[in-house]
Amino acid sequence: MKFSNVCPKCGSDQILMVPGDVRSYGAGNNIMTGMTVLSAVKVRRYVCCDCGFSEEWIDLDDIDKLIDRYDQ
């Protein structure tokens, strides 16, 4: 959906992008990689307005933060 603007489940082109954000105490659309909100990685959501299917995407610039924190 991120690139095609078409839902892979129902074929709709009614797609919304919900931007990731970071709020106090780690609230918002994000993944925490450390102890403060400054370490949060924002997660964008793409939502189909017809069937409700959604996808989550992370900017490629933030992948290294996730690898450093979660790759065991």
Give a count of the beta strands, DSSP E runs of length 2 or more.
Answer: 5
Biggest β-sheet: strands ordered side by side in the sheet: 1-4-5
How much is the average pLDDT?
94
Principal-axes geometry comes out as: elongated
Distance between the termini: 30 Å
Largest sheet: 3 strands, antiparallel
The total tally of domains equals 1
Structural class based on helices, strands and sheet pairing: alpha+beta
Approximate strand percentage: 15-25%
Description of the structure:
The protein has one domain (15-70). The protein is of the alpha+beta class. It is elongated and about 40 Å long. The protein has one helix and five strands. The model has no long low-confidence stretch (mean pLDDT 94). A three-stranded antiparallel sheet has the order 1-4-5, with no helix packed on it. It has a two-stranded antiparallel ribbon with strand order 2-3. A hairpin with a 5-residue loop joins β4 (44-48) and β5 (54-57).
Descriptive keywords:
72 residues, alpha+beta, 3-stranded antiparallel β-sheet, two-stranded antiparallel sheet, 1 helix, 11% helix, elongated
Describe the structure concisely.
With 72 residues, this protein is an alpha+beta fold. It has one helix and five strands. The mean pLDDT is 94.
Q: Could you give the topology of this structure?
A:
Layout lengths: L14 E4 L11 E2 L9 E2 L1 E5 L5 E4 L5 H8 L2
Antiparallel strand pairs: 1-4, 2-3, 4-5
